[in-house]
Amino acid sequence: MHAPESQPTEVGRGSGVDALRRGKGLLRRNLRDECGGILAMVAVALVMVLASTGLAVDLGRGYIERLRLGRAVDAGSLAAARALRLGQATARDEGLAVARANGVPTSSTSIQFGVNARGENTVTMAAARTVPTTFMRILGHQQMQVGARATAAVPPIDLVLVLDQSGSLAYNGVWTDLQDAARGFVGYFDDTIDQLGLVSFQLAAADRFMIGHGFTSPITQAINSMQSVGDTNMGEALRLALLQLQRSNIRTTSGKVVVFFTDGRATAVRAAIGPPNAGQDRMIAAYQTQWGFIRGYFDNPARLPMDQLASPSGCQDAPTCFGWDEDLVRQQGRQAGLGMANAIRAQGAVIYAIGLGNPNDPDPLLQPDLSYLRQIANEGGVVDATQPQGRMFFAPTAADLRTVFDLVAQDLMVRLAS
Fewer beta carbons below 10 Å: N end or C end of the chain? Predict the structure, then answer.
């Protein structure tokens, strides 16, 4: 007899099915767990992305606001610096007004005055603003502070004012207008910050006030007391201006300036006048218009009167005098002015030249020589592009003098503050 064959039991079959079911359940649970972890990671990453985006957006807004504040304080500090010579109160008002015009309210700004290591007066303007955030709120930052700060230095000025006092000014009825314009010009400068000197000229030239502080009252008094008389010796005037700028009290950090005014052309010069090889230090002058002879020569140049007409020592109304004729006097007088102006610029000084006169006068010698004055100032580098370049201003009438002197002062302030 054969033993009966073994048959699969229901117990074994049931165990396999249960195992399969258990595996599927475990897989589903694992998938659910992984999905939950991925979702958590995505959520964390999303927060980080939003925070980074918010940081970039909000910081960008802050950067733009800081640029705006920077432009405002730059402009405001420069405006205050230009006005500082009118007093700190005026300077503060000017600076705040410019800041407001650039969208920054007074409540957000502050101004401080000081002196830097170079001895320059300074104006420092600061502005700040609270900028609300948008995306950075996610990280708990509701706002951020932005600010800007700018300092403008105000270099002191060492300036020599050179004024023509020749007789043509009184003859043409413009002398009092010049005195008024010159007094107004001096008022632009500060007795403690700046140093001013005054030179006047006709046949001779004189130091009416040696350059220094405390100039306002003495220079004003000197301008009031001067008389319009005599000839036009430009070279001698600029020579004295050069000597003032070479004095020991001239500061290395200052802006060095000569403001030169005239209403005519050179009619006198200082030179060795006399027989060949025996010339003496003298002045020699021609008349204002072409007469064909000279007015004469004058001894003792340093002792010639400044507020009255000097009488010639010799060669009066002669066609020639020791080889000098009218044309040579004018030519040498012109060259003396150019030579001294070149020496002034070589010292690092800027020259402003102011001319007065009628450019349409029928007598060419009574027309202002504007080309010559541009050379005196080296406007646009016309003489020497490596030297300081000044400007020439022209006043067609006496009524324009005050405006022109004001323009010179304002141009000078902008030049120093820029």
Answer: N
Three-class secondary structure of residue 396 per DSSP: coil
pLDDT tens-digit series, residues 80-116: 888 888 888 998 999 899 989 988 888 878 899 988 8
Read off the tokens for 237: 């005037």
Mean pLDDT over residues 289-316, rounded? 96
- Looking at the chain, the domain(s) classified CATH 3.30.1300 span 25-154
The per-residue DSSP string of 203-272 comes to SSEEEEEEEESS-HHHHHHHHHH----S---HHHHHHHHHHHHTSTT--TTSEEEEEEEESS---EEEEE
Query: Which single residue is written with the structure tokens 């140049």?
Result: 301
* Nearest C-alpha neighbor of 319 from the set 286, 276, 289, 351: 286
What secondary structure letter does DSSP report for 363? S
C-alpha dihedral, 216 to 220 to 221 to 224, nearest 10°: 180
Reduce the secondary structure of 141-207 to three states and give it as a string.
CCEEEEEEEEEEEECCEEEEEEEECCHHHHHCCCHHHHHHHHHHHHCCCCCCCCEEEEEEECCCEEE
Residues of the chain with CATH 3.40.50.410: 157-417
187: tokens are: 């008022």
- Cβ–Cβ < 8 Å for 271, 282: yes
Torsion of CA 101, 107, 108, 113, to 10 degrees: 90
- Fold of the domain spanning 157-417: Rossmann fold (3.40.50)
Q: What is the pLDDT of residue 188?
A: 92
Domain 25-154 class in CATH: alpha beta
